[in-house]
Amino acid sequence: MSEPAHLPLREIERRVDALPGVEPQRIVPLLLPMWAVEVTATVRDSQPYDVLDRYLSRAVAEAGLDRADELAGFLGVEPPLVARAVRHLAGIGHLVRDGDKLNLTELGRRSVADGRRYHLATGRRLSFRFDGFRGEPVPYATVVHSVWLAEPELTLADGTVFSVVAGVSLPPDAVSLLLARPDAGDFTGAALPVAAEISRVQLRYLPIYLVICAGDHLVFGKALDGPDPYLAGFIPFLGGNLET
Prior knowledge:
Layout: H1 9-17, E1 24-47, H2 51-62, H3 68-75, H4 79-91, E2 95-98, E3 101-104, H5 106-114, E4 117-131, H6 140-144, E5 154-155, E6 161-164, H7 174-180, H8 185-188, E7 192-213, E8 218-220, H9 229-232
Helix pairs in contact: 3-4
């Protein structure tokens, strides 16, 4: 492991004591079950538009121009430049020809709307995380800023022992539901998958500290310096660990 799996218990105690109005009663080190799902995906990457590509696409989308000669006259550029831009945009799936007419594809329309030149790339190997309680995707910020354990055991150098929490199986439709979400990028990162085939599913473990309080309980992970609102959503699943 290239970095400690978690902060020592004394540091969590210090951070809890610094919180106003919090009355901690007990701190419980736990390992949350999480599913690591490796996929081979078609992803939608984005790049800044070239100037001519952008204005040509907007002319088709917004001005209703659909012929190369009309576009050249409207944009005030030489026809060979328009022809080259049309070939490029057709090659990346933004334009299709219908005889002499040009039409934007769905990918082309999305690119114009968002102001980014999207293109599809196949065969990309990606890994997603899903929680082991509801089978819902883990936010990308938590994924990249946490340490994930392959084995259900962890003892820190100060002797702190983390206990494993039991989870449930990954729902078979977890990946397809993720891809259908309008906020999928919050869970997948910059390369947004539009299709994915699962290649491997493995159980992983996320170290956390559950802080039992007189009021609302808190959860500390490694992705944030303070209490983590995302991880606090798992408190109802922690069962007997909440008993004081």
